[in-house]
């Protein structure tokens, strides 16, 4: 959605990506930039950052989120409430 696509357009592109992965027997992180661009011209080099699992997790810094920073804050909060 960061590329200004509607949900419908994004859904169609994802369908193409899934088909391509199944056809080639690869996962998303194994596809080339050219493969991505065959499905849609909106893909640029930053696609590989967007599908990096560790980066996606660490970007979720909201309270209760999975980022290391958020988890550490949650632990500190619980420790304070338990007087540890």
Q: Tell me the strand percentage band.
A: under 5%
- Report the uncertain regions: none
CATH class of the largest domain: Mainly Alpha
The chain-level mean pLDDT equals: 91
Topology overview:
Blueprint: H1 7-24, H2 33-39, H3 47-50, H4 53-59, H5 68-81
Explain the overall architecture.
With 84 residues, the chain is mostly helical. The chain folds into two domains: 1-51, Ribonucleotide Reductase Protein R1, domain 1, CATH 1.10.40.30; 52-84, no CATH class. Helices cover 60% and strands 0% of the residues. It has five helices and no strands. The model has no long low-confidence stretch (mean pLDDT 91). This is argininosuccinate lyase.
Brief write-up:
Keywords: Amino-acid biosynthesis, Arginine biosynthesis, Lyase. The chain contains five helices and no strands.
Please describe the structure with a list of short key phrases separated by commas or semicolons.
single chain; 84 residues; 2 domains; 60% helix
């Amino acid at each position: 959605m960061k590329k200004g696509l509607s949900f419908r357009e994004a859904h169609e592109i994802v369908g193409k990506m899934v088909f391509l992965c199944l056809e080639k027997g690869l996962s998303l992180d194994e596809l080339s930039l050219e493969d991505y661009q065959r499905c849609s011209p909106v893909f640029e080099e930053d696609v590989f950052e967007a599908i990096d699992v560790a980066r996606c997790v660490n970007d979720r810094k909201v309270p209760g989120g999975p980022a290391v920073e958020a988890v550490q804050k949650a632990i500190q909060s619980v420790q304070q409430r338990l007087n540890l």
